[in-house]
Design a protein that fits this description.
Blueprint (H helix, E strand, L loop, with lengths): L1 H17 L15 E3 L4 E2 L6 H16 L3 E2 L7 E17 L6 E16 L5 E14 L7 H18 L6
Parallel strand pairs: 1-3, 1-4, 2-4
Antiparallel strand pairs: 4-5, 5-6
């Protein structure tokens, strides 16, 4: 009888955790081993953003996924995209100097992740955006806020490469 009483809480915990979506399987598609990331396109007038974003995506894939980067000719899949908009807004300015005290930068992209072996689209997003609101420290500039947004956007793009729940 005491043994049954001890098993009841264990069974309840097992049932609860089993229904919560926890799994030991990988969050990533195991049929994909390599990803090509060609230089992204930039439809905006902000120069060099495509280089920075492509580099940030490469670093995120290498650091946070099981995938390896490869040239398009040998890769299993390709992640390509376009920067479609960049918006920088001054949220408030110093009354005396009229210098920005808080800036918000938003970057939106369109991207597609495609399996090159089958042609199947694994993920497609339009106007996928990230933004950051920064209070610039003394000596920081708009490019610093842009870099924060690029890092945030690259992380979100790589997060979208996970298998759907």
């Amino acid at each position: 009888m005491k043994r049954c009483q001890r098993l009841i809480p264990v069974l309840l915990v097992t049932i609860c955790l089993g229904g919560c979506g926890y799994t030991t399987r990988s969050l990533y598609n195991s049929s994909i081993e390599t990803v090509a990331v060609p230089m992204w396109h930039n439809e905006t007038f902000r120069r060099q953003l495509e280089f920075k974003l492509t580099e940030a995506i490469d670093k995120n894939i290498e650091a946070r996924t099981p995938y390896r980067l490869a040239p398009e000719s040998t890769a299993d899949s390709i992640l390509s995209g376009t920067i479609v908009s960049v918006q920088a807004d001054v949220l408030n300015s110093n009354f005396q100097t009229n210098l920005p005290q808080q800036t918000q930068v938003s970057i939106a992209v369109d991207f597609t992740w495609r399996d090159l072996r089958s042609g199947k689209v694994l993920e497609v997003r339009k106007n996928f955006a990230a933004s950051a609101s920064e209070v610039p420290a003394l000596g920081t500039q708009l490019p610093d806020a842009e870099q924060i947004v690029i890092e945030r956007l690259a992380r979100r793009i790589v997060d979208s490469m996970q298998k759907p729940w």
